[in-house]
Design brief:
This is Putative bel12 ag transposon polyprotein. It comes from Panstrongylus lignarius. With about 200 residues, this protein is mainly alpha-helical. It has helices at about 15-25, 30-45, 60-65, 70, 75-80, 100-105, 125, 130-150, 160-180, 180-185, 195-200, and strands at about 10-15, 50. It is built from eleven helices and two strands. The chain folds into two domains: about 10-105, no CATH class; about 130-200, no CATH class.
Length: about 200
């Protein structure tokens, strides 16, 4: 909608491939297409775009070389397709397929990240002499993992208190799994007869 005129805008394209790109998230596509899709989406909402067949596309009158004398009285050129005068609910629709080969060629390759953590390896913790430094590095690592798994809601900027708290809990679990491995294992057993588990009423 134009903010000053209060008018609804509908944009048409006769390219189903371009329409699929526009209706997709810009970060999904390779750089060239993604940047242009982002610019288009900044100008108009996704639902403002519709498909028009080539036979009903006024722009094709000029691109296909209609003679000037014919163009002067060409109804499609001056008024558009006949259905344009009807209610938008009756306009023809065309399904968009994201599986089309031409569409999928512009899909940005995704990287798979596998994180393997050994619960008995304290070498990571022992690399730091400062707890604050260790907390912050761990928090940034956890943020990196989150951003890789959630590209549509990336975390940026300074670390938050909740991120630092989560990092601290992660470090505590790491140390506990190394030094209290047997106790943790016994705590998972409701019938455990382990002395420390019974004395402290440990549970997980």
């Amino acid at each position: 909608m134009l903010p000053h005129l209060g008018a609804l805008i509908t944009a048409f394209t006769d390219s189903t491939v371009a329409l699929a790109w526009i209706r997709g998230e810009s970060h999904r596509w390779k750089t060239f297409v993604g940047n242009r899709v982002a610019d288009i989406q900044d100008l108009l909402p996704i639902n403002a775009w519709r498909h028009v067949s080539s036979i009903d596309n006024p722009a094709d009158c000029a691109s296909r070389g209609v003679a000037p004398q014919d163009l002067q009285y060409h109804p499609l050129w001056w008024s558009g397709p006949s259905w344009l005068a009807a209610s938008s609910s009756s306009w023809p629709t065309s399904p968009v397929s994201f599986d089309d080969e031409s569409v999928s060629q512009e899909v940005k390759p995704t990287a798979s990240i596998v994180l393997t953590v050994s619960s008995h390896d304290e070498s990571y913790v022992e690399r730091f002499s400062s707890l604050t430094h260790l907390q912050r590095i761990t928090a940034y690592c956890l943020r990196f993992i989150f951003n890789c798994r959630n590209p549509s809601s990336l975390k940026r900027g300074c670390l938050t208190s909740s991120e630092l708290q989560r990092a601290t809990l992660t470090l505590i679990r790491c140390v506990q799994s190394s030094h209290l491995a047997s106790e943790l294992h016994e705590a998972q057993n409701p019938n455990s007869r382990h002395r420390l588990v019974r004395q402290l009423h440990l549970f997980i």
